[in-house]
Structure formats: C-alpha cells, structure tokens
Design goal:
There is one protein chain. With about 160 residues, the protein is α+β, with helices and mostly antiparallel strands. Helix content is about 30%, strand content about 25%. The strands form two sheets. Strands 1, 4, 5, 6, 7, 8 and 9 form a seven-stranded antiparallel β-sheet that branches. It has a two-stranded antiparallel ribbon with strand order 2-3. A hairpin with a 2-residue loop joins strand 6 and strand 7.
Amino acid sequence: MERGYFYFISDEYYKKFSNEKLMTNKEMVHGEVHNRPCYYSFQDDDEKRIFWMIPVSSQTDKYLNEYNRSIEKYGVCDTISFGYLKGEFNAFLLQNMCPVTNEFILNQYLYADSQKPVHIPNDLKRELNAKARKIIRLAEKGKKLTFTNILNMRRQLISTLE
C-alpha cells in the first residue's frame, strides 16, 4: 500500500471491527454490488505498517450541510473536507476515518481506461493529512471527533502485527 492513493477495504476488516461505526462496505449500482466507499490513505507517523483511511462520498449536499453547521457553530470544520476525485466533487469524511493494515486491503482504486492509480492534487492531500493528524492528536488527548474509536482500533491492529 502506498500513501496518498485510494483503496478498498475487505469484508474481513468490517467483520473484525463490526462493533465500530464504520461506513458500510457495499453499495448496489444497477443491481450489482460494488466496492464502496473508496478510501484515501496516509501512513501513520509512528507505526509505519498502519495506514489511516479516509472514506470518500459523492453525497456532497448532505455533507456540505454538516460542514456549514460546524463552521457556523465553531468557525472551523476539521471532520469534513471537499475536493475533486476523478473530476467529480466529493466529500472526504475525516469523521469516518479508520486505521488499517495491508492484510485488510482488497485492492487499489484504478482508472478504468489506463489502470493507473486514482490520485488527487497535492494541496488536497496536504489538507487531508493535516486535518487527520490533528484529529489523531486530539483523540490522544481524549477529544473524540470520529464516529469510530480510532485509537482502540489502532491498538488492536498493532497487537496483531506483533
């Protein structure tokens, strides 16, 4: 797995962390099951075998409302970002981020025509990485900004690596 690219997470991960409030793994499109959501990845600062995954959603109207409410109330929103992925405007849901290891990666998100990895601009990568690291630091201080217990999940993954 490489940082800064997009991946799909296996069903085994969702089974392992079934008690967490993870986004659902599958979506029906034209009667067929598709891997959803795709996740933007970046590497953990301390344990390099852990990657943090930020899900992407095309439901931008829903998340724009949440984003705007947070801006009105707090003057900032670190849990949702927006940007373009494959030419489409999407929401990057840091509030749903989760840690993962290579064993739970199903496959990489590739452009259908070229089979090259899907990517985003560097400025959006920097924004996502900065917000995610802030969320992790705040979680370490006891402030919870994510739906999942990211630190407990990280501890469980590290224990399986040892």
